[in-house]
Amino acid sequence: MLTLNPSAPISRRAVLGVLVSVTTAGRPAAAPAALKADELAELRVELPVDVQKLVGGVRVAKVAVATPTAFDPAQPWRVLIVNATSDLGHQSSRQLMTAYRPAAAGAGWVALAADPDREVAQRDDSLSLRYALAAAALDAVHPLWREAGRATLAFAGFSGGAKYSGWLAALFASQRAARVAGIFLSGVNEEPVATAARQFKVLDDDFRSMPVFLQAGRSDAVATPERHREIMAELRRLGFRSLRLEVVEGGHRVDATWLQTALEWFARSDTTRR
Fold first, then answer.
1. Residue 83: C-alpha distances to residues 157, 162, 190, 270 (Å)
2. What is the pTM of this model?
3. 100-121: per-residue pLDDT in tens?
């Protein structure tokens, strides 16, 4: 079972000024170019030295960003930040993003994911590292998309990545770095949303109005449908008002069946919450 260590969260200010090199379709670009519609761009982001010391010596973030068909870099777009579990063989958030990309594109969202450039042991895969990767990725996108700083965020993940998504939503909200529109939790067996919100002191009425979408596998023995129902009931007791649970066929595996529906819901809700 994954246990997150919320200690020593990194300020967004600490990850500003990253150095970026960009590759698209595997070829290095001479200079960063504006993101295009229906594109998968890959970036290497060098973390500042002070950040490297706080995240176990990880020097470079490998970033993937995917745009929807109608994407226009002169306009603000909502961004889905994807997080994978830290379990061996399934740690790549960029790989998980490829599974989530069609749903994000269908809902009109930009999808973003980042991984360290070297393998990190599960014990060293901290919340501080995940935050540094996500924040550096967002800042690295700025030269390619000038309206990135106005993006509304949502977080999605599977299993341990869902837990990270809950914690990152609260951490980003606490930093006032961006508006958080929703969280998609799939295959999760612990309640991360309210727990993280308490830790980072953002469990207010606005945070409780944020939609949370849970998805369970019918035959999942690791994160059972019943456990998802318990998590939803716990959130409801704590005052969360926008909750939804759907059950899909299969066990403990990645499944994006309801992700597009969730993102469309997040967008509608974000409009009414402003």
1. 5, 7, 16, 21
2. 0.90
3. 999 999 999 999 999 999 888 8
